[in-house]
Amino acid sequence: MQLSLLLRYYDPELAHHVFDKLECKPELFAISWFLTIFAHVLPVRKCTVVWDFVFGSGSPEATVCLACAVMLELRDSLMHASDFPTVVSLLSGSFAAMDVLHLLEEASLLLASTPTSVLEPALSDPVTASLVKTSCCCLLSPADIAGLKHNLDSTVDAKVNGSWASKGGVLLLDIRTNDERRRGWGGGQNNLTSSSASAAQQSRNITSMLQANKIISGAVEVAFDTLRGWREEEPIGNEDEHPDDFVMVDAADGRGSEDDDDHHIHREGAMDGEPVLRLLGRPHMLWYPAAPNTNIASSITAASSSSSSSAAFAGAAAISESPHVVIITGTEPEDGQSAVESLQRLGVAKVSMLLGGIKALEAAVPYVVIATT
Amino acid sequence: MASASPTRAKDIPAKIVVLGESAVGKSSLALRFVRRDFIPNQEATIGASFLSRSVSLVDESPPVTIKFEIWDTAGQERYRALAPMYYRGAAGALVVYDITSADSLRKAESWIGELRRNADPQTVVVLVGNKCDLESMRQVSIQQGQDLAEKEELLFYETSAKDGTNVDALFTNLGKTLLSRGVIASGVDRRSTMSRNLQPPGSRTPKSEQQKRCDC
């Protein structure tokens, strides 16, 4: 389970192919990896090096990171495998030829750069545990979002394909209803306490929006406050920082959001998304809505369908360019699950849920949250 | 090997799980079948290993090729909890015991019970008495094995992974049985076949298989 979460985090497309499409779960092929810390599959010489790494790292997660590195290493062959037996024989038969030192290097990168919520999910928390069990998506805590700052600074994530700090940035997708949003943002109430009725409503909303291929009818707030805040937070005012990796998107249902749109845009100086992004020199993000009324859903779908339709793995680049979508739900995280699944069905590869809701995010990373009411 | 029958698009996959007490020869049996090889000091399996081999059944009409996808499980007790993962959705299950160990037959009985309770009712179960080359050390008679197989309505074979006795015959016959019972079918997705056959549970009780005895 931990391995599947980790791989889903770093390479959702590979994880989907192996774990979901070919139904090749880690429990089927990785048991001996973990039970013997790779002693069963590696020749003794290589094994001693691996054990040095595992015990030397002092981290119980070292083994799972190494397992993930192995799968990432075999990515191309795994993606080309079209049936279960091929995958299993690839995963069990490729060790002799592998460059262990290279693998260990990759594994220590993973170990250093993975958010805590992904690497060590808080299984004592029943909600987290149930979500981890389904392992449909990763869960990120506000602290992880805050940690992105470090990840952006380091060279670590640049090396790891598909990591959440990938070039696509992070897209915070707010799927709460207007009602929930008002309570969550303005009223000071804990936004995790909404009734189940509104949860059902919300899940209906998101589903119908997705089905109509209009996920997000609200405005794109390229949050100037946010960007400024980010700069202020940065002690060394490095010009090369990438404050634009956070983009807040309002996904409230269409009816109520119009006023809000105008409100935001005017308040923030009526600047469209595209020029802003261009200004920031991040051309890969241009497929965010070019104008406030542009439908971001179609952009996401277009980007993802173009990659998924092309044979096997030609679209990998497009996927790694796509943003990591972090869903903010107004209720219990379980209710966001349907939204996650809908997004995944639409082909959005990297989806996570924000643990603890917007209030917690605001507390941990105040500069990415701006008030809308 | 593969016949040019127009109805056969490709090999028919058949998921087979091998269960039984540790050291009865599950891995050796699988390796004998897949690689036609025998390693005297086969190391203990960890978790499970996966092997596959395609076999053409030329006397079927039309001739078919079955691709046996074999999950060779670990016999040690501590891996027992993993077993359901491997026998879930299996078309066939080999429950192996060692003819030189009466204990291993009792363990086989408990595996049969577990399969009856938890596995797909369509799963074809074969009782396999392995190590039949060790006649002098025999603790389980052929009759005992046959009685158990008859009682539980299973296919039954005594095999030797060491000298290859009955190993191919076992798999060939298993393949034929899977086809005749419709557990696997050519040209149809295996899973949909399985679920279709699950609709009338127990409607085709494996009563007719008792004549297929071991002749070793």
TrEMBL record, chain A:
Domain named Rab-GAP TBC: residues:
1-58
Q: Where is the Rhodanese domain?
A: 311-370
Q: Which Gene3D superfamilies match?
A: Ypt/Rab-GAP domain of gyp1p, domain 3
Q: Which InterPro entries match?
A: Rab-GAP-TBC_dom, Rab-GAP_TBC_sf, Rhodanese-like_dom
The protein's superkingdom reads Eukaryota
Q: Name one GO molecular function term.
A: GTPase activator activity
What name does the UniProt record give this protein?
Answer: GPI-anchored surface protein, putative
Identify the species of origin: Bodo saltans (Flagellated protozoan)
From TrEMBL, chain B:
Disordered: where is this region?
A: 190-216
Which branch of life, at top level?
Answer: Eukaryota
Tell whether rRNA-binding is among the UniProt keywords.
no
Comp. bias regions, Basic and acidic residues: 206-216
Do you know which PROSITE patterns this protein is assigned to?
A: RAB, RAS, RHO
GO MF entries: GTP binding; GTPase activity
Q: Which UniProt keywords apply?
A: Nucleotide-binding
User: A single Pfam family, by name?
Assistant: Ras
| InterPro entries in UniProt | P-loop_NTPase, Small_GTP-bd, Small_GTPase
| NCBIfam families assigned to the protein according to its UniProt record, in alphabetical order | small_GTP
Protein name stated in the entry: Rab5 GTP-binding protein, putative
